[in-house]
From TrEMBL:
Pathway: One-carbon metabolism; tetrahydrofolate interconversion; Amino-acid biosynthesis; glycine biosynthesis; glycine from L-serine: step 1/1. This is Serine hydroxymethyltransferase. The gene is glyA 3. Gene3D superfamilies: Aspartate Aminotransferase, domain 1, Type I PLP-dependent aspartate aminotransferase-like (Major domain). It catalyses: (6R)-5,10-methylene-5,6,7,8-tetrahydrofolate + glycine + H2O = (6S)-5,6,7,8-tetrahydrofolate + L-serine. The lineage of its organism: Bacteria, Pseudomonadati, Bacteroidota, Bacteroidia, Bacteroidales.
Amino acid sequence: MKRDTQIFEIIEQEKLRQLKGIELIASENFVSDQVMQAMGSVLTNKYAEGYPGRRYYGGCEVVDLGEQLAIDRLKKLFNAEWANVQPHSGAQANAAVFLACLKAGDKFLGLNLSHGGHLSHGSPVNFSGLMFQALEYNVREDNQQVDYDQLESVARAERPKLIIAGASAYSREWDYARIRKIADEIKALFMVDMAHPAGLIAAGLLDNPLKYAHIVTSTTHKTLRGPRGGIILMGQDFENPWGLKTPKGEVKMMSALLDSAVFPGMQGGPLEHVIASKAVSFGEALDPEFKTYQAQVKRNAAVMAQAFADKGYKVVSGGTDNHIVLVDLRTKFPALTGKVAEKVLVEADITTNKNMVPFDSRSPFQTSGLRFGTPAITTRGAKESLMGDIVEMIDTVLADVENDKTIASVREKVNATMKQFPLFAW
Ligand code: PLP
């Protein structure tokens, strides 16, 4: 077979793009070479529907070892009692929880998408909003932090079957204990989607939601620094407290309901090459070095938030407890949309994304905010001292968005800076 130069040239181009730019997308990271290697391995050739020790295909003895290792390492990492490592993505992990816990049309409660929530927590264009009755809670207008009083009053009035905590653009710690109390009062299940801060939680730098939630979902590719994928975990609460039934009407343990919801409910064959790669990343996250990395991610974000504030930007919620810095552009540049800001920064080789800010006056296609994150830049070795320079470069571009010369000179600086932070060994 002839080598496919067309696609490999595209991959090379993307590699160069990643190398020369400053990557500030909060949901991205750079995986290690061994995480990458496991993904591109012979395990992709294997079908393994089912779970370790109970598969629908022959020849699964070896992949069973890989999947079990991933499960064992993941349980240890988050102090979990049960884990499923098969979801192909974070959204599919969430979909499996919905399938296990709700019937079509049931009510559930999640954070308003325009206040930082995720698409799969009830957006009207997502399965969660299309198939179920999505209710929402907000952040408070005064401090842009979760409005627990409002959450509580919606929960009491509407009695949803499921309450979801977790977000895509929220930079603060959660009061999981308070939400669990509300869930218990109305006999709802409590799920935390820790996709964004999972790495910080694994490192013990944020509270572990497994202590409070019935079910925890996550992606593996953000702060956790693994391959793209999803996971589902449970702490001590796998007993099916509210007597949920299988489609055949049986009451089973939550773990069994969730396993069946992932396969055969949502997916067919698991991606054993990705699961092996997840195992590698969980192993890396168990290493003490990971704690040092996550502490740096957090410190870098705090310094970045302060640097934006010092330059007159409004940082949503006034700061950050995690890896995210959400900036409201309106105070400094009232006419500048997130859409234009994202585009000009990309021209300067700084990658970030436009984002709604709470109580945004603009649509999700324009937005008034930019979301920044420090996981990727920290993996490349950036320390606090670089954060001020990065904010300075961003500010220079945003203050002069129509000047190609300014953009070109910042781009040169960005490329020169990133040369000092080598990335791939290959
Ligand atoms: N949950 C949260 C909180 C997220 O931020 C994301 C992705 O950004 C997801 C779920 C979905 O993950 P995936 O893109 O792997 O489906």
